[in-house]
Design goal:
mainly alpha; 3 helices
């Protein structure tokens, strides 16, 4: 917890960004989509 409290918000990325990136990779490989089709799939949701 002390490590997290010591992080500077301008230098560290949020955990939400990491979860979004992992979700995109998961959708891409699970559905066997290209990069472009993955973006389109996410935009539809």
């Amino acid at each position: 917890m002390a490590y997290y409290l010591g992080l500077n918000e301008t230098l560290a990325c949020s955990t939400k960004d990491i979860y979004i990136a992992i979700g995109v990779v998961f959708i891409r490989y699970k559905c066997c989509l290209s990069d472009e089709k993955t973006i389109l799939q996410i935009q539809v949701c």
